[in-house]
Amino acid sequence: MSGSRAAARIRHPRHERRGEARLPAVVAVLAALLLYLALPQKLLIAPRYVLPALEVLLLLPLIAINPRRLTRQTKVFRFLSVALVMLIVGSNLTALGILVHELLYAGVDDGRSLLVAALQVWLTNVIAFGLAYWELDRGGPVSRTQTPREELQLADFRFSQDENDDAVQEVADGASKASDWVPTLIDYLYVSLTNSTAFSPTDTMPLSARAKVLMAVQSVAALLTSLLVIARAVSILR
Question: SS3 for 45?
Answer without folding.
Answer: coil
